[in-house]
Amino acid sequence: MADSHLIPTYKRQPIAFERGEGAWLYDSQGNRYLDALAGIAVNALGHSHPALVAAITDQASRLLHTSNLYEIDVQTALADRLCAYSGMEAVFFGNSGSEANEAAIKLARLHGHARDIDAPRIVVMENAFHGRTLAALAATGNVNAQKGFEPMPEGFIRVPYGDLAAVEALDDTRIAAVLVEPIQGEGGVRVPPADFLAGLRTLCSDRDWLLMIDEVQTGVGRTGHWFAHQATGITPDVMCLAKGLGGGVPIGAALVAGPARTLFGPGSHGSTFGGNPLACRAALAVLDTIENDKLLAHAQAMGESIRTQIEARVGELDIVTDIRGAGLMIGIELAEPCAALVDTAREHGVLLNVTATNVIRLLPPLIIGPAEVERLVDVVCQLIETMPIPATQT
Ligand SMILES: *Cc1c(COP(=O)(O)O)cnc(C)c1O
């Protein structure tokens, strides 16, 4: 691969897949792998789901793309559905998570300017991940990812994740919004204190800041709710979606409500591909399937089963420092760096991910079944049990 014409922006594992079915991927030799990563929370319905295949096939035979210069019925229908599930009021469609967050950042600035703030600021979190485009990268709390790309777009104020008092203590009059993940994904499947989002909601309402929730990874059933913040009973002003929404077809969305509802008008934002018929039809099939097959409750149950079984089997080991998450977004934090587990797991026929150095991250498709859960738990626990015992802390 060394002389490939691909720009080497990714450290790739030495494997390619030929086809997939349900929670399984098959390589060219016919070996099968249990997919506990789902394309990083993208393949919500697993691989080759018949409902998604049928929807895409039918749509492709009618219309792939027209233009946002025209009405697009499936886009309108998808916006209706997303608003019905979320209580949000309107949707802008893009093609990725970064783009959804770019829209949110632009909305925050419009909101600031509407309040006569010349240089509006957005409060963001340590260890946040919001994407790789420049403004999303500036919002991302990772100096390594930013390195070399300076100057970063300005206007971000960073506080520790989960620290409501730190946000409350900010007295910068230029603040226009808070951008936050309900559970940090890339940052290590970090779950904030129970009152964090509700506290931010109150604070944002009191101070006329937009509460902007990045549900790119947590949204569309991943945590056993349509959107993770719904577990806390609040409604944000802006919500960003992407990853699982199209079940593998690229689509992103920024949803608005309340004070964010009227900020964008004709000509203020746009995307050539955003919300095209193919992507919207795929997303509608994903939403239909989650609803018809009761996948929210299923994701809750399967996630609970994975977490309790792992807890019971390896929770007491010194190497395991925490098991956390919601629904099928699960993090197992170890006392040692564990990036090598990705290769070992693959050699045992399981695809998983390690993030934030020492957190095993499981993001299986929402359709994973009980027998596959048993297999996943078994392999993950075996890997953890055979990790070297950590050196005693002094
Ligand atoms: C993956 C991710 C993004 C970026 O999405 P892209 O589609 O890669 O641009 C943004 N926010 C969160 C929380 C993510 O997990």
Topology (elements, then pairings):
Elements: E1 17-21, E2 24-27, E3 32-35, H1 38-41, H2 50-62, H3 73-86, E4 90-94, H4 97-114, E5 121-125, H5 134-139, H6 143-146, E6 156-159, H7 164-168, E7 175-180, H8 196-207, E8 210-214, E9 238-241, E10 252-256, H9 277-292, H10 295-314, E11 320-326, E12 329-334, H11 341-347, E13 350-351, E14 353-355, E15 359-362, H12 370-385
Parallel strand pairs: 3-13, 5-6, 5-7, 7-8, 8-9
Antiparallel strand pairs: 1-2, 2-3, 4-10, 9-10, 11-12, 12-15, 14-15
Helix pairs in contact: 2-9, 3-9, 10-12
This protein binds pyridoxal-5'-phosphate.
Structure description:
Helices cover 34% and strands 18% of the residues. It is α/β, with parallel strands linked by helices. It has two domains: 17-49 and 294-385, Aspartate Aminotransferase, domain 1 (Alpha-Beta Complex); 63-292, Type I PLP-dependent aspartate aminotransferase-like (Major domain) (Aspartate Aminotransferase, domain 2, 3-Layer(aba) Sandwich). The strands form three sheets. It has a seven-stranded mixed beta sheet with strand order 4-10-9-8-7-5-6, sandwiched between helices. Strand 1 and strand 2 form a beta hairpin. Helix 2 runs antiparallel to helix 9 (277-292), helix 3 (73-86) runs parallel beside helix 9 and helix 10 (295-314) runs parallel beside helix 12. The longest helix is centred in the last third of the chain and has 20 residues, at 295-314. It starts with 16 loop residues before the first strand and ends in a 9-residue tail after the last helix. It binds pyridoxal-5'-phosphate (PLP). The site of pyridoxal-5'-phosphate (PLP) has 15 residues, from helix 4. It comes from Salinisphaera aquimarina.
